[in-house]
Specification:
By secondary structure, the chain is an alpha+beta fold. It is built from six helices and twelve strands. A six-stranded mixed sheet has the order 3-4-2-1-12-11. Strands 5-6-7-8-10-9 form a six-stranded mixed sheet. The protein is globular.
Length: 270
Amino acid sequence: MSQIKVATINILFEMTDWERRRELLLEGLSIAQPDLIGLQEVKLPENTSTWFADHLQMPYVHLVPYNNPAYPNGPTYGAAILSRHPFTQQATLDLQGQGRMAQYVQIEVEGQPFGFCNGHYYWHPGPCPERMQQIRLLLDWLGKLPPELPLAIVGDFNGTPDTPEITLMRDYFASAYAAFNGHEPDYTCPTPLDKKRHWWRSLQVVLVNLWANRTLKPWHGTLDYIFVSQYLSVQDCQLILTEPAPDNPLLYPSDHFGIAAALEWDGSSY
């Protein structure tokens, strides 16, 4: 049997409190000890993924900048995959909306191939045709891989479990968290860090929630997932990066929680 541990976390591109937040992120990731990590919202040109790669001793990094020409003056960021194993394949998919990208790498574990895909998908509350189109592009792209390849697909999908886009993902792959725990997390976003952000960002969140959900009740939802192919057995799957700084109950590693999963497969299936 071959084993691997994977994780995903949207680290938030904003640089406010970054030096303290990155220490909290590092601490949580060090405890989880994943072999592969999918990071979303890596800030550029600072490339906030390299610091984690160095400190986690994960020397193999695949970085993909987002490209959103509709917002040329907006934040510049991207996605990154960190790995303890060298890449045998690398590829990138333009998701054709909001500049978002998906990335794929393949590694070998005990001589067995393993595929890993990281992505950050269209942001819009509730069901979203643009995000559905991205998921269809993703599934078509991954569908070209050998069907027997053990494969994990992670990221910030920006869709809650009840949306058609996530339902479509579950038609092809299992959610590792739900497979191990019997249900999805109560929420993965936002953390209380959101209360520390600029007042206008907080107001924006309130107004979007009022428009989308017709309520002033604070919104929480599950947007982050680890999906796995049929050949992978989920040995463990938990939320990570869920605790604030010891001296500040509002200072969290990010505005998202992360997820880590321990996976196992029979190499004879490939």
